[in-house]
Design brief:
The complex is a heterodimer of chains A (about 130) and B (about 130).
Chain A (H helix, E strand, L loop, with lengths): L5 H4 L13 H32 L1 H12 L1 H28 L6 H29 L1
Helix pairs in contact in A: 2-3, 2-4, 3-4, 4-5
Chain B lengths: L7 H5 L10 H27 L4 H9 L1 H29 L5 H29 L2
Classes of the chains: A mainly alpha (about 130), B mainly alpha (about 130).
Amino acid sequence: MASTDLRDRRPLSPHLQIYRPNLTMMMSILHRITGAALYFALLLGIWWLVALASGPEYFAFVNGIFGSWFGLLVLFGATYALFHHMMGGIRHLIWDAGRAFTVPAAEHMAWMSLALAAGLTVLVFMAGWLAA
Amino acid sequence: MGRGFQTPLRRARGSGSAHEGTGHFLAQRITAVFSILLAAFVMVLAVVLAGSDYDTARAVAGNPFVATGLLATAATFVYHMMIGMQVIIEDYVHGALARPLLLAANVLFCGLVFVLSALAIAKIAFGA
């Protein structure tokens, strides 16, 4: 446990200083960042449930915040993070099944993830806009 | 009974540097699969309830099937994010004090978030 121990000063995995950025590396980093963001974004959903449980006045107050341009921007970002992390998770499940390990396959899945995450986010907001 | 009667798996278990097995690895993936379905459910619900008034939202969310889905979502998401954040902390935080404190704070935060969501869903469902 002593911090003078050589083990505490040894380098971690040889990543950012060694390898030039590439698509699958960025997707790996983004998977972790979106996961960490969703850790806190879940609070938005819980806040909405608490508002619904609390009564009409507080519900209207929270809905007003969510419906403002800033609220919608945050919700749009959170929704994109959710779909991005979901697509990243599906890629990992495919790899867990022992498939798509070649570089072209991995890069193809990365582009597909980005396109599907963006598409699904826009789809949800357009559907919500039409429903509202 | 000598060790000769034990299976190779029994002798290997717990001997790694982590002293445990693949429990979290499997749980992360099982909750991931369920999270895909539950996230789809939440997105459909959000679209259905977009712009609706209080009474409508309360009635829809209070439906036993919808409330069950919400509670399952809260449980699955919170567990998935708890073991996910644990990996992040274990990767980046190495301080003798900071590491156990953050690992404990993660469990505390996730526990409180789940209890809060469960209480809110129960209140909506039971109409109190």
